[in-house]
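One thing: could you explain this record?
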Amino acid sequence: MRKAFTEGTDEVSEASDLIEEFPPGLGDESVELAAAKREAAEHYDRFLRTRAELENVLRRQERERLDLSRYAAEALARDLLTSVDDLERAIEHASAGGGAQDTALFSGVDLVRKNLLAALEKHGVVRVPALGEPFDPSRHEAVAMVDVENAAPNTVVAEHRPGYMIGDRLLRPAMVVVSRPKANADTD
């Protein structure tokens, strides 16, 4: 593996650098061996870096694939939640009517709501607990604050719209009413 030092100045300076590293009296074979070892070390280092980069790419791709499969139903679930809300309002309105209800229709609507919720739950969509829980801005959206005698401050006292999560992601925050901290009323 002898290099020809005819035209390129880079090759000549490279050879002179190698010669300066070794004491005088060593043969050309030692210089070539040292150059080959340095080149092998550089190639091995490049190989290790490329291998680590490939492993990182594969891990990232696997994580993205898992996230895609885990959250694939997110858009569909978000669209279906509006229908679930409508069914819950219909059931609430029918039960609050107080008059003669068509129990078959009421039962049918309730059954459809339960089936929709079961299908969503099967795909990882779960309801966010809200009523009676401490207010959590990462899961709840406060629409009002009220004074309540028997509730601790910053506690959810009413829920206008339920919130849902899919896996560990918030799909939709719960719209809630939160109890206000009691003001110290010092009237003189």
About this structure: The helical segments are 9-21, 28-70, 74-96, 103-122. Strands lie at 125-128, 140-146, 156-161, 163-166, 169-172, 174-179. The radius of gyration is 36 Å.
